[in-house]
Model the fold of this input.
Amino acid sequence: MLIDVYYICVSVLSIKLCNYLSKPLFPILHIIFAMLFSVNLSNLLTMQEE
Done:
């Protein structure tokens, strides 16, 4: 439960961060955050299956 809240907070903060940053950096950071988010999501799914 705590992990879910942590990931939600991190994703919200990362979105806010991306909004503040300049446009050239945005695509790179967006890809990084998308990769991290998908990894976190798959980790949560495997944890729930166990």
In short: The helical segments are 2-20, 26-49. The two ends are 15 Å apart (CA to CA). The chain has one domain: 2-49. The CA atoms of residues 21 and 29 lie 9 Å apart.
